[in-house]
Amino acid sequence: MKANRIHNFNPGPAALPLSVLEEIQENFLDFKGSGMSITEISHRSKQFDAVINDAMARTKRLLNLDDRFQVLFIQGGASMQFCMIPMNFLADDKSADYVDTGTWSTKAVKEAQIQDKPIKVVASSADKNYAYIPRDIRFNEEAAFVHLTSNNTIKGTQWSNFPDTGAVPILCDMSSDIMSRPLDCNKFGLIYAGAQKNAGPAGVCLVIIRDDMLERVPENVPTMLKYSTYAAKNSMYNTPPCFAIYTVDLVLKWLEETIGGLDKMAALNRDKADLLYDLIDGSDFYRATAQNDSRSLMNVTFRLPDENLEQQFVQQALENGLGGLKGHRSVGGCRASIYNAASLESVKALTDFMMSFENKNG
Amino acid sequence: MKANRIHNFNPGPAALPLSVLEEIQENFLDFKGSGMSITEISHRSKQFDAVINDAMARTKRLLNLDDRFQVLFIQGGASMQFCMIPMNFLADDKSADYVDTGTWSTKAVKEAQIQDKPIKVVASSADKNYAYIPRDIRFNEEAAFVHLTSNNTIKGTQWSNFPDTGAVPILCDMSSDIMSRPLDCNKFGLIYAGAQKNAGPAGVCLVIIRDDMLERVPENVPTMLKYSTYAAKNSMYNTPPCFAIYTVDLVLKWLEETIGGLDKMAALNRDKADLLYDLIDGSDFYRATAQNDSRSLMNVTFRLPDENLEQQFVQQALENGLGGLKGHRSVGGCRASIYNAASLESVKALTDFMMSFENKNG
């Protein structure tokens, strides 16, 4: 680890590849010979056009999206998507199926309900504090869409495979695992992801939309809340969050050119998660909170024998250069978020620390 | 001008103070000893709390806001405000008065109309291609609010004084002149400004709201579109655009500590604008497009004898290190945007170039 940098296990905003940060830093006063910072150039300039188009093209290549899909950049995070989805796709008061796998899917449900949309929660893992991903769900054939959260940052669970929803498109919040593994785009009508976990900094949401979903958007939705506005204007109806999109582009370039694509990224992510889960499963001191078949490869949530030890664990980890290990305030415990940019080296430093902490306190 | 940097007259995103850019660059890999970039730290951390609270406190001090006002940071730019305003303040189908001074106010009107709100356009300068600010307007006493655009980036006009609207609060888009002069907050119920002109980079909108306006927000508005959500959660209901807010904070620090406050900034802005308008008024070659009493101190719009010369002007200016002088594509001509961070030195370089160009081509 470079001098002054810590091993960053933050749940989001989260670690970014050091090479990306260094490239931003190096070019910060003069972007590509423009004589301006990336924060000062016009979004209508040739230079920025190249950035946003490159970010869109890399997204399509990395996720193997076919020509039916378009990449959009929207502000407001995944939380804004929770309200845009019912506005854009349930205007005719059709119903939709939602699966509730914890905090973020619960919020998505709530935003549809605020708009008085007749949605159905067809499955939930609330009965076991969201420690698992529901199986064998009965979806409604007449639903406008099925809404899922692919990875549950707070509960530490993840869909390892997506369910068969027949002809009904899946609309999926992939904020915390987009770009962490290859994608079969055929199941999806819409994918969205706040960038600040696997794809960039806070301040932009990556949205992937299929053309038939665009056709469903009604006319009378406010301009900034219509997916069709972003699709028609290459995400520049108004000034986009230029710096955030630029950083996303650099992260995607790193994924393609340094990592070598999503198959390789997925293998590396599997190795990282295995290191942690193997240690936890082999220990009587640490205990994983998610059920075995539902475990997230992105957010490893675990408990120690008591809360006092958990506090000491988080504190001593930080003193040893390992940051961001506190569980979400709503659930407590510990959590290691090991998104794409968290290196194998960082995870090894963490497992070393965990073994040493157990030896001293176990 | 530092090597490789140009004189930047972009209309937005626009020039930022060089010292701000240098501070960002210097600390980009390790923010305040955290061992993380500002793009990697948690928005729930002590470090980021200090940033966002400092930005709010500086905004209140600079604009001399009293305790009735709260500072919010919202994504989506001014365009998102165009739709949030009717959603939050016209839920009961009350009417509001809008003044149409060109492109951006026209869009604000359109977004209220999309929502079927019974608003009234009580004044417009459309009859003279928006070259002036309307005077002696009759406002409706029963209006929920009056909406104004304080500075019209594209048309080059600006309200030098705000009208008397009695007890009706003014809701004002100050995207292109916020922080350029002192403010008398008493007239305003809501002020909003996309940061990318006078206050920071693209990706965050600075919103100032008075407590009585917050009380008007209805319950059934989507969470991310309610002003009360941001007010209750210190603008962190969900992950805010951390980097953009950090940069705004540094720009506000520069305004307070380097410039010395908004009285001084206003005097400097007046000097910059005078240099340009004096040159234009003393020339038969250049012609200002805005009426004398309505001229913007932020965006100086002007024409040359013909479009061919205008093209040459913009091109040769760029070759001489003066960027961003092309008028908006909807109106043509030339425009020098001289926001806070455009230095007197840059404006002098521009007037020198303008005199030389006139001598060669006049």
How would you portray this structure in words?
2 copies of one chain form a homodimer. The first copy, chain A, is α/β, with parallel strands linked by helices. Chain A has helices at residues 18-26, 46-62, 77-89, 103-114, 211-214, 227-232, 242-259, 262-281, 307-319, 344-361; strands spanning 7-8, 69-74, 97-100, 120-124, 146-149, 151-152, 157-158, 170-173, 188-194, 205-210, 287-288, 299-303, 322-323, 334-337. Chain A has 2 domains: 21-258, Aspartate Aminotransferase, domain 2, CATH 3.40.640.10; 261-361, Aspartate Aminotransferase, domain 1. The interface between A and B is large, with 71 and 71 residues.
Layout of helices and strands:
The structure is a homodimer of 362-residue chains.
Chain A: E1 7-8, H1 18-26, H2 46-62, E2 69-74, H3 77-89, E3 97-100, H4 103-114, E4 120-124, E5 146-149, E6 151-152, E7 157-158, E8 170-173, E9 188-194, E10 205-210, H5 211-214, H6 227-232, H7 242-259, H8 262-281, E11 287-288, E12 299-303, H9 307-319, E13 322-323, E14 334-337, H10 344-361
Parallel strand pairs in A: 1-13, 3-4, 3-5, 5-8, 8-9
Antiparallel strand pairs in A: 2-10, 6-7, 9-10, 11-12, 12-14
| Overall morphology of chain A | globular
**What is the multimeric organization of the chains shown?**
homodimer
Number of DSSP E strands of chain A: 14
Q: Kindly name the structural category of chain A.
A: alpha/beta
Mean pLDDT of chain A: 97
User: What's the CATH C level of the largest domain in chain A?
Assistant: Alpha Beta
Q: Share of helix among residues of chain A?
A: 25-40%
Order of helices and strands of chain A: EHHEHEHEEEEEEEHHHHEEHEEH
Euclidean distance between termini CA atoms of chain A = 28 Å
- Looking at CATH, which topology of the largest domain in chain A would you report? Aspartate Aminotransferase, domain 2
CATH superfamily of the largest domain in chain A, by name, is: Type I PLP-dependent aspartate aminotransferase-like (Major domain)
Strand content of chain A: 15-25%
The Rg value of chain A, from CA coordinates, equals 21 Å
Major β-sheet strand ordering of chain A: 2-10-9-8-5-3-4
